[in-house]
Structure formats: structure tokens, C-alpha cells
Specification:
Chain A is of the alpha+beta class and 366 residues long. Helices cover 30% and strands 27% of the residues of chain A. Classes of the chains: A alpha+beta (366), B alpha/beta (244).
């Protein structure tokens, strides 16, 4: 066997995303083609996808995707789930045998609504009730991990190369108006199924290339509000930060993005007075939510797609648009392979978050 | 015969290119989609023509060969190149000319972040980077030697010729900028000075070559004035940790 230093591993995680602003459907095979082109950026220790709009027949129900490591975990978790939710459907997520993916957990999904009596007794609003239930399972039920908990969305992830993970979950059978994808190259922790991206809570999902140097600061900040970091990797904290800022504090998506990637003080000093006041306030109020370190991050949500880069621009991220679609990827070639002639193509800069809102009108949304 | 890359792995494509070069001095590869390390360490006298989007580390350690890219480059084009020429009919990604030691790179359009990071020169070895449009943040970061020429051609209203933290930690070499530039984006250690007659001679040579490669009118490019950005001291971080 080759020793460390004798083998070169070209690495660096890969992320990709597509959105159709008008809500048009995109087949899963497209995002697989994009992320597969960046095969060499990951090392087979994690791949995953988030898909929005895939369960129209269950659009008003929560879709829970759960990993079970053993039968006991399955039994305990279902007991909890059936008590707190009215579950309509409980089924194994269909998968296909793929040579490179093995030793996986038992993977289930559930569609259901909240148990209103329990929710009222808990004096929580619906979203908070769901988040607390998910947090409870992930923190207290050994061997059970709810890795997807939104409405009409689903995360699919595994230990493997992303294109193999896509084949494993047969994602060419799903159509979504928004896809995100990730190929993992874990650096500080070993890869495991729960640690693969995307990380999801409610309708928020995160894929991330890089490292969060401020992880412990951010974790201490977010755990004050009832969240628990259980996935043994840095990325999940970003998911909770967005959920907290947007759902609890009602910040618009672009303001939440400014909190996470606020400019340096030296830059704020040079701004005009309105902007200076805005960023000074954000940095003062939300200092614990400022994210530091090299990263490019894509946030998927039912409101649209957000791409951010760290302030010093230490990870590459390219964006492109054509017609009603917007594309993002770690490498330009991964966009051009599915969109050869974009109308506009640019590199996402550290200072400017890119938000592509979904423009569904209300009637369509009912 | 052209080599068609398609979605094949970079190692397979590079193996084929290497084999072709055993009996030829010019090889063409088409339908390139992100394959890495193309033209890696290419020697003097060899030319590689590429059509498509070249992957990361294009022309890594280029050793005197010539690369012609009809399409766009990604990250770290010309990484640690020690000589030769790269001509890009398009734009490139981050860290263009990373640690470049010698040779010349001509980019028709813009470059993203960290263009010319840690370029260096030694005696007769002098790297040159010519960028047609504009550059992202951290242009010339830790630059130790060589020349960057930024032309700012075709900029739209509101677009800046370079991004923030330009020449951060620069301690050698020079950056020529054509027309006006955002002074607030310049790092504190850098001063802007007028060009000398010798600078003008150097500029004319490389701008002339750029105009020839991309069929741009030389006179109209040279009509606008240039300034030279150089470091105030060769030790910008001398007092960062200890005063010595």
C-alpha cells in the first residue's frame, strides 16, 4: 500500500445546484451529470442531493427521511414519530443495488402531519414543534437520524461518490424545480452516512465545500436556541443558523446571508453611513453567527436558491443563467456540461451573495 | 488526428496526449470538459491546442511549451510554470499563474480571484501576465516578482478593473494598470507611480503581443495612459508579529 505523501489525491469537495425560477421541472439525471463531471473533487466518502417539489401528492405533509442503524432504533423512533405525528405513509425509500455503495443503514421515509393535540399542548408553533421533534430524535435516539424533514422536498445521501449515490436512490425517477448536489472529501472527520451533505431542517438544505473555522463559536451560539449539533461535522451548523435567522428572527434571506458573511471592519469603515450602520448592527447583534473559514455554500429552500462565498474568497464557485434557470457549480465545466451556452456566467465573489428567488405565483402554490 | 476528450477521465486523456507528442510537435484536443492537468510540464517546441473548458491546473509546471486554449480556463492555470506561453481565448478562474516563475500568459477576457498570486522572478527568469479585461479580488497577492498588465478593455459601467485587497502582501515585481483604478481596493503597502521610458518599452512589447493574439487595435489600447503599482517596501509584514 502507498504511504501518505506517495499518492496524490486531487481533492476539494464539489457542489452544484440548478433552479428553475418559474417552477419548471428538472429531471434528477441533469444534476447527476453536473456533479459527476467533478468526480475527482471527492473521494467516495460522501455524496448527496436535495430535491424540491418531488412529492406533489404529499405537498402539505412533512416528508421525513430517516436512517436506522438497527431494528431497535427503528422501533423506538417509529414509536416517537407515530405519537407526535399523524403518519399516512411509512415505507422504505426505493434504492437500487450499486456495487460501490455498501454497509448502509435501513432507509425509510414517512409522510404525515403534526399531531395537533400534542402540538397545542406543547405551546409551540408548527415549525418549532417539528424542529424540536427532529432534534429530539437525532440527539436522543441512538441509531436513528432524521436527515430530511421538509414539505415536498427530500434529501438523499450516502457514503459513496455522488453519481453512484444518485444511481442508488434512482434519482432519474424524480423531478424537481430545484436541485442541489454534493461530492464529499471529508478532511477532519471520517465519512459516515449522516455526515454526508446536504444537511437539512424543515425546508432548508445546505451543501458546502470548505471548512468552518468558526464552528465552535457558531455551535455555542446556535445551541442556546435549542438546536443540537449531532452529525459530527461542521456544515450542519450553517443549516441551523439560516433556520434560526430566517424563521425565528424573520430576516429576509439576503440579510441572513449578510449576517453569515459580513464584511471586515476595515471595509465597513469605508462604507456610506446607511450601509455602515446596517453592517455594524448585523455584526454587533449576530456576532456569534458570523461564519469564518474557507467556504462556498449553497442554501436550497422553498423560497429559492442562495449561494455564498467566504469573505476572502478561498473556494471557487461559478454561477450561470439561461432562460428561467440558474446554475451553480464549483467548476465552470460542470455547468457547461448541462448548459453549453449560458446567457450570463460569472464567478461568485466573497462580498456578494447570489440569491435566485422562486417566482411561483400564489394560485400555482395552492 | 484530434483527440476527443468528452467526459473521459483526465488521466486517460493526458496519457493519449503524451503518446501523441512522442511523434508530433503539435497536438489538438477537442470537446474538453474540465479535464485537469492538460499540457502539464510541456516542453520547449511542443504546442497543445485545446477546444472546450480546460480543467484545473492547466499547464501546471509548463516547461517552455505553448498552450492555445479556445474556450475558458478554470482554477490555477499556469500553476508554477517555469517557461513557455499560454494564450487563452476566453476567461479564467481563480489563482491564475500561481507561483509562476517564467514565461507569459495572455488572457483575452477577465480573470477571477488571486490572479498572479506569488509570481516570482530570478535573474533572467521573468514571468509576464497580460489580462484583457478585469481581475477579481487579491490580484497579485504576495507577488514577489514579474509583471502583470491589466488592460480593462470592454468594462461595463460600474465594473472595476480590479477587486478588493489588490496586491495584498506584494513585495516585488510590478502591476501596470490601464486607465483609472479603484484606489480603495489597493492594499496599504502599495504606491501608484508614473511609468518610465523603460516601462513603456516593456508595455509596448507585451501589449503588442496581446493585440496580435486577439486581433485588437494596438493604437487604441496604447492611447490611454498606464500607471505602475509597486510595493513601498520589500518586507510588508516585517512588524506583524515582532518588531525587528
Amino acid at each position: 500500500m502507498l504511504k501518505e505523501g506517495q499518492v496524490r489525491i486531487p481533492s476539494g469537495c464539489a457542489i452544484a445546484a440548478i433552479i428553475d425560477r418559474k417552477g419548471g421541472m428538472i429531471n434528477g439525471s441533469e444534476i447527476i451529470k453536473s456533479i459527476a463531471l467533478m468526480h475527482d473533487r471527492s473521494n467516495g466518502l460522501g455524496g448527496g442531493f436535495a430535491a424540491y417539489g418531488i412529492y406533489p401528492e404529499h405537498r402539505d405533509e412533512y416528508a421525513f427521511h430517516i436512517f436506522y442503524e438497527n431494528a431497535q432504533a427503528h422501533q423506538n423512533c417509529e414509536e416517537f414519530l407515530f405519537k407526535h405525528f399523524n403518519i399516512d405513509v411509512a415505507e422504505r425509500i426505493p434504492t437500487k443495488k450499486v456495487d460501490s455503495i455498501s454497509n448502509g443503514p435501513d432507509i425509510w421515509r414517512y409522510f404525515g402531519r403534526v399531531n395537533r393535540v400534542r402540538m397545542k399542548n406543547s405551546r409551540l408553533d408548527e415549525s418549532e414543534y417539528v424542529v424540536q421533534c427532529v432534534t429530539k430524535v437525532n440527539a436522543a435516539y441512538d441509531g436513528a437520524y432524521i436527515f430530511s424533514s421538509g414539505k415536498n422536498i427530500g434529501c438523499f445521501k450516502a457514503v459513496g461518490y455522488p453519481e453512484d449515490v444518485g444511481e442508488f436512490y434512482m434519482l432519474d425517477r424524480y423531478n424537481a424545480y430545484l436541485w442541489t448536489a454534493h461530492g464529499r472529501f471529508p478532511t477532519n472527520t471520517p465519512g459516515w452516512w449522516g455526515g454526508a451533505h446536504p444537511f437539512n431542517i424543515l425546508d432548508w438544505s445546505i451543501v458546502h465545500n470548505g471548512e468552518i473555522s468558526s464552528y465552535d463559536t457558531n455551535r455555542r451560539y446556535i445551541e442556546q436556541f435549542g438546536y443540537k449539533c449531532t452529525m459530527q461535522t461542521d456544515t450542519e451548523v450553517i443549516t441551523y443558523l439560516f433556520d434560526h435567522l430566517i424563521r425565528h428572527h424573520n430576516l429576509p434571506v439576503n440579510v441572513a446571508a449578510d449576517v453569515l458573511t459580513a464584511p471586515e471592519w476595515a471595509e465597513i469603515d469605508r462604507m456610506d453611513s446607511d450601509k455602515k450602520e446596517y453592517f455594524t448592527n448585523l455584526r454587533a447583534i449576530y456576532s456569534g453567527a458570523l461564519v469564518n473559514g474557507p467556504f462556498s455554500v449553497i442554501l436550497g429552500s422553498n423560497k429559492g436558491l442562495l449561494a455564498i462565498n467566504d469573505r476572502l474568497k478561498l473556494r471557487s464557485l461559478t454561477a450561470a443563467t439561461k432562460g428561467s434557470r440558474a446554475y451553480f457549480a464549483s467548476e465552470e465545466s460542470a455547468i457547461r456540461i448541462i448548459c453549453p451556452d449560458p446567457e450570463k456566467l460569472w464567478s461568485v465573489s466573497g462580498a456578494e451573495p447570489v440569491f435566485v428567488p422562486l417566482e411561483l405565483n400564489e394560485e400555482e402554490d395552492v | 488526428m484530434n483527440i476527443v476528450a468528452g467526459v473521459r477521465s483526465y488521466s486517460e486523456v493526458n496519457e493519449e496526449i503524451k503518446t501523441e507528442f512522442l511523434s508530433k510537435n503539435k497536438v489538438t484536443v477537442t470537446d474538453v470538459n474540465g479535464q485537469r492537468y492538460l499540457g502539464c510540464a510541456l516542453d520547449v517546441g511542443k504546442t497543445l491546442e485545446i477546444h472546450g473548458t480546460a480543467g484545473n491546473d492547466l499547464a501546471f509546471c509548463l516547461n517552455g511549451g505553448k498552450i492555445m486554449l479556445h474556450g475558458h480556463g478554470q482554477d490555477a492555470v499556469g500553476n508554477t510554470m517555469g517557461g513557455g506561453e499560454i494564450i487563452i481565448h476566453g476567461h479564467t478562474g481563480d489563482a491564475l499563474g500561481y507561483g509562476m516563475r517564467d514565461g507569459q500568459i495572455y488572457v483575452r477576457d477577465n480573470v477571477c480571484c488571486r490572479g498572479g498570486i506569488h509570481m516570482k522572478e530570478f535573474r533572467s527568469m521573468k514571468p509576464v501576465l497580460v489580462i484583457g479585461s478585469n481581475a477579481g479580488s487579491f490580484l497579485g497577492e504576495y507577488m514577489a516578482g514579474g509583471t502583470i498588465i491589466l488592460l480593462g478593455l470592454g468594462l461595463k459601467r460600474g465594473e472595476k478593473i480590479f477587486g478588493t485587497h489588490c496586491a495584498s502582501g506584494m513585495h516585488g515585481g510590478k502591476i501596470f494598470v490601464r486607465g483609472s483604478f479603484p484606489r480603495e481596493n489597493l492594499s496599504p503597502n502599495i504606491k501608484a507611480v508614473s511609468i518610465t521610458a523603460e516601462d513603456e518599452k516593456e508595455l509596448k512589447e507585451y501589449v503588442g503581443k496581446y493585440c496580435h493574439c486577439f486581433e485588437v487595435d494596438f493604437e487604441s489600447v496604447m492611447n490611454k495612459s498606464f500607471v505602475k503599482l509597486i510595493p513601498v517596501t520589500s518586507r510588508p509584514y516585517a512588524d506583524l508579529y515582532t518588531a525587528n
